[in-house]
Design goal:
236 residues, mainly beta, eight-stranded antiparallel beta sheet, 19 strands
Length: 236
């Protein structure tokens, strides 16, 4: 069974694996560490620490989700100028021409999708996710897996291409039994906390400001005692 990867705080206490894999022709290779590579779905997840950069990337080679943990990053190009700082979350589409600029140390988490091919509906510019935006009501978790009454839920997809969806989700506290996910998901917790218990018994209490990656097939149970709001990144 694949591992659940918990990017806990403080970052110095993390104990994460290192994957023997490197992204081919990676313009952001400096300081990048890959913790998990899923060859069948075609994605990697990891962290990066780099000091100073001023790169003009003519053709960004894949879709990449980024979460800034420390430092500041500026993304500039035709029709966009994004200023990003600690706590911000952003998405760079494949094929975009972008200037990637930061001074001093930049520490970030990423989920990159080299397996997603170029397509006609690929967005034309990066986005900074509005973490506080109002969400529409959505379907709660399936009654068949719930161990508590059905909670109220809200969500909105903000970036979608092929079998990848990125957006915001909020849900009242609930508990569900162990299920084997049919998709891979990164969750950046904005409010609240959730405890994920893996099939082998390992528990991950993921709090606001922390990130967890649950690969396809990583059976787990969910318990949240308060409303959770998160950025989701789902590859079906």
């Amino acid at each position: 069974m694949p591992p659940i990867l918990h990017y806990s705080q403080p970052h110095t206490d993390r104990d994460l694996p290192c994957a023997a894999f490197a992204l081919q022709d990676d313009p952001l290779a400096a300081g990048r560490v890959i913790h998990f590579h899923e060859a069948q779905q075609g994605f990697v997840t990891g962290s990066s620490v780099s000091v100073g950069a001023n790169l003009l990337i003519e053709d960004f080679p894949w879709v990449e989700l980024g979460i800034v943990e420390a430092g500041e990053l500026r993304l500039q190009g035709d029709g966009f100028d994004l200023q990003l700082s600690a706590g911000d979350c952003f998405v760079v589409p494949r094929g975009v021409r972008v200037r990637w600029h930061h001074r001093g140390q930049l520490r970030r988490l990423f989920m990159a999708f080299p397996g997603l091919q170029a397509c006609s509906d690929m967005p034309a510019m990066p986005i900074k996710i509005d973490l506080g935006r109002t969400l529409a009501p959505s379907t709660p978790p399936a009654a068949s897996v719930l161990l508590t009454p059905a909670p109220r839920a809200w969500s909105e997809t903000l970036f979608s291409v092929a079998n990848l969806r990125i957006g915001l989700w909020q849900c009242e506290g609930y508990a569900r039994k162990q299920v084997e996910p049919s998709y891979s998901e990164l969750m950046f917790i904005l409010d609240g906390a959730v405890t994920l218990t893996a099939q082998g018994g390992d528990r991950h209490c993921v709090r606001a400001g922390e990130t967890v990656v649950v690969p396809k097939g990583a059976t787990n149970a969910w318990v949240s005692e308060e409303t959770v709001r998160k950025v989701f990144c789902i590859l079906a």
